[in-house]
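Following up on my earlier thread - several people asked me to post the actual chain instead of describing it. Fair enough. Here it is, all 230 residues.
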Amino acid sequence: MKKSALLIGALLATAAISSAQAQDIRLGLRAGANYSNLAGNVKNQDTYNNKAGFLGGVLLNVPVTSDGFFSVQPEVLYSQKGFENKPTEFTGLLGAKQKREGNVNYNYLDVPVLLKVNAGGFVAEAGPQYSYLLGANDETRTTTTPALGGAPTTTEAQNKRDLSGLNRSELGYLAGIGYEASNGLSLSLRYTGALSDFVKSDDNTYFNGDLKNARHSAFQLSLGYLLAGK
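Reply from S.P.:
Thanks for posting it. Predicted structure:
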């Protein structure tokens, strides 16, 4: 599936470049914020909250029609995703009460290939996206209160940057709307979701197995700027 999506994206980009010929191919920049969380079959869903993160990178806009109405736009973005542990108490092993809190950050390289329609400045765009996990940082703190009483203890996550239980590659999609001014400045509201789980299926220890079937999900608000073409 992943190879097919990448092949389709490459063919679309190649076709667009071939048809563009001497038209205005433009390089651009994008920066903004993710508002991310988890989708899929997540256990104890209420304990995982939305988290804000940065996104930024470069893009290439390739016109397919001479009036700029339709174009193909591949992008390469650094994207911070993840979730915040809501400090909610739940029952752990042997009846002990546990409370988790703290952010979990996943740093990705996102490569969407978007089909873009620009109708007088109003933009609609959608396409497949390949993501590669660059790194992670688990800042979770767990407070455990024994079932039979006693003083609570607080521990921090071990192996905070360990990626061995995570899938590094992810296939997903992106869709959004926005407005693009004639000077190349744009504002975009997008949604991106994954089609594949990011925790390895044979790993039941990551967050006590809560995230075994979890996928990344994020709303994105960003500014873009297309540099002047030839």
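The chain has a mean pLDDT of 86. That should answer part of your original question.
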